[in-house]
Prior knowledge:
The complex is a heterodimer of chains A (250) and B (268).
Chain A: E1 3-14, E2 22-33, E3 37-41, H1 48-55, E4 63-68, E5 71-72, H2 78-88, E6 89-92, H3 104-114, H4 119-132, H5 148-160, E7 166-170, H6 178-194, E8 198-203, H7 206-209, E9 214-219, E10 222-228, H8 234-249
Helix pairs in contact in A: 3-4, 3-5, 5-6
Chain B: H1 2-12, H2 14-39, H3 41-46, H4 51-92, H5 97-137, H6 150-177, H7 180-184, H8 197-220, H9 222-254, H10 264-267
Amino acid sequence: MDNIVTVNQVTKTYGGQNEKSYQALKGISFDVQKGEFVGIMGASGSGKTTLLNILSTLDTASSGQVTIDNQEITQLKGNELADFRAKEIGFIFQDFNLLENLTARENIALPLSLQNVAAAKINAAVSKIAQRLAITEILDSYPTQISGGQKQRVAAARALVSEPAILFGDEPTGALDSKSARDLLETMDDLNKNDQVSILLVTHDPFSASYCQRILFIKDGVISTQLQRGNQDRPTFYQEILTTLGTFEQ
Amino acid sequence: MLIKLALNGIKSRWKDYLVLFSGLVIASAIFYMFEALATNQNFIKQNTTIGAAVIIFQLGSILLAIITLVYILYANSFLMTMRQRTYATYMMLGAKSGKIGQLIFMETLIIGIVATLLGIVVGTGLAYGVGTLLMQRMGGTIHNFQPLYPLAIFITLAFFMVLFLIAAIINRRQLLKQPILKLLHSSNTPTAIKHRPVVWLIEAIVGVLLLATGYWAMIHLGVLGLVLALITIVLGSYFVFNALAIWVLSLLRNAKLASKGLNKFTIA
């Protein structure tokens, strides 16, 4: 199997020369295979957000290498970095991060229009992903007119419209009610299984994590343990996560 | 699409932009008025009595220019902090820094051009009014005074375009200098004001001294005094306002006035 993400000995140290320094990541290594649905769990302060920020090129590692879709991202700068963000990665955040003054359609089209893609191509791509995520009816609504669950679907559509190599989710269900959360997770599962979308999800919620095929547990800046779902059904896996979390905390 | 995004940026912050916008209209209107009075050659030649007034008008417009420059830079950096998150979202979605720069230029220039044109219209009215008033006071009649004077329009437009260009360049530099993560997590409210009471006190005293020097020079030293006054009054006003405004603002904030839905920018 091909690796879509390879993380090799990544460290991140905060604090300058005159301040007390703090090492958030202490040499983390793992990889994500093409078409895999991987979860990263850990308590707050464990370094999971730092890791996601580095993987999604929003932050830089202090040392180590990160390769996404055969590109060494720690070396990217300026326009290369912008192109990489536009083409290779998609993000969904807890707080959606949609632009309030643009319709759902315009929000979804944004990554393509910022890359100067032709209008006809944009329209085709937006219609396709909207249909896939069942949001065709709300395309002309503004974010304030739709529900939280719908907003996150729009955000997911925006993340996927340029057909990225991997989708990053930072607590995407954090601001949703339980029904919308379940819907969103089932959609992600469906995209992963049927469209081979690779997904990396950062969460502290065991329910969200139970949709993943593999879970990495981060503690104090290193991966302390990992769980494989294998052939278990989701409720059994959920129980296993809870048990692991229970022993993990101590 | 770029224009659409720029217009959308203005629309989303319309209430805040409106404050900046109306300030700019007034500034450009007064600037135009001064210029219209100072550059009307026929008017000046035929009314020799107001010859000395031309210098005053020119000095007035320079004074106004400096004040406007400070105002634009201040107001713009204020608006920029509120727009950081949007720009960060664009960057995260793969907008190149060149594209972000274009967006900032467009937003700033759209506001600038509309405000300046509107200001010239208002300024024409003002120039006519003041010109008439001036003549009545001096007991003469108006000869050849054109409130809508091409040279004055040109100077006003050119001056304000340069101003906005400078503002846009500064905005762009400041935004692109910051790491994207910081922008993305920046709140929509501007940065807090630092508490430095001693600095304010010194500022206020220096400011008052400078203002006093300025007014004294204006009364006693003739034209030279006017030039001197121009410099000291600008500096003096800046110091006094800076010190006083921050002090009043922090008082207002302590009084929890800001929490009653009053936008910090509006207070500012």
